[in-house]
Amino acid sequence: MTGVRAAGMGTRPLGVFDSGLGGLSVLAELRRAMPEQDFVYLADTAHLPYGERSEENIRALTEAAVRHLYEIGCSGVVVACNTASAYGLSHLRATFPDWPVVGLVPAIKPATLHTRTGRIGVMATPATLRGSRLREAVQEFADPRGVQVMLVTSPRLVPLVEAGAASSPATRRLLRTLLTPLAQAGADQLVLGCTHYPFLAGSIAAEFPGAFSLIDSGAAVAWQTRRLLQERGGGGGSGQLEFLTTGEPERLRPVLERLWAQAQAGAGHTEGGVADTLLPPLGHNGGVSVSDSFSLAGPLRLSRAAL
């Protein structure tokens, strides 16, 4: 791995992991909350998508990616992937007990608090819908309030976003098919249960103007992560970014640049959700390992990670 190396800095970067580029929506919120924090973003695009994989496979891929961030000296990790969070968080926390791990929780709570119709929609990957974390959130927050939760999924959405086609006619047709039953049933809140889905916000609004309030967990994760870093006396830096991929960097670069620009422009444009966090004991003292500084106006620093 060539992109991250010691640079003589007094702080260590925070790792951010996703199966692909959807986690850029979370990274943008993290930078909005902590503009001086250094970050290393790892996209496991060689194994994308995670949504139709087995629980065991998702857990193994998640551990391999997060271990890479641990070993290069990141100060902690934000698992910016709902599917990886659904199946990997407990395992990660047992594997790295002295290291901060922040994950995503489906934003059922804010949706149930804000609905006026008593019906909310959740759009997520097949694996996230199968997982217990969503079911537990529904049982804890929606069921006691008598809120009806309507679930929709499609394995095609993540590849469309990764291909840079979030606003394409094909994507809008698919969204129309998926979400029309929710709109007709009166759902007024739509939980975006995958970090790729905030990139679909424009297409959803165009197809269903005024029908849904869109809710994702990016902002909540960012501010909770900031609080945890402040409690530990960590954080800071000079706002450096390093992007890593398990796939081919130059094939990924055009879509990465386009989605990163969209993510920065769209930060804060959806409603906030909730984060799943763990503040472990102090203990991990890995070496400083960050990238050279670069300007956001210049080329993004992107390299390959061999897990």
From TrEMBL:
InterPro entries: Asp/Glu/hydantoin_racemase, Asp/Glu_race, Asp/Glu_racemase_AS_1, Asp/Glu_racemase_AS_2, Glu_race. Its EC number is 5.1.1.3. Substrate binds at D18, S19, Y50, G51, N82, T83, T195, H196. Transmembrane segments: none annotated. Keywords: Cell shape, Cell wall biogenesis/degradation, Isomerase, Peptidoglycan synthesis. SUPFAM superfamilies: Aspartate/glutamate racemase. The active site is at C81 (proton donor/acceptor), C194 (proton donor/acceptor). Pfam families: Asp_Glu_race. It comes from the Bacteria. It catalyses: L-glutamate = D-glutamate. Signal peptide: none annotated. One of its GO terms (molecular function) is glutamate racemase activity. Pathway: Cell wall biogenesis; peptidoglycan biosynthesis. Belongs to the aspartate/glutamate racemases family. Provides the (R)-glutamate required for cell wall biosynthesis. PANTHER family: GLUTAMATE RACEMASE. NCBIfam families: glut_race (TIGR00067). This is Glutamate racemase. It comes from Deinococcus lacus. The gene is murI.
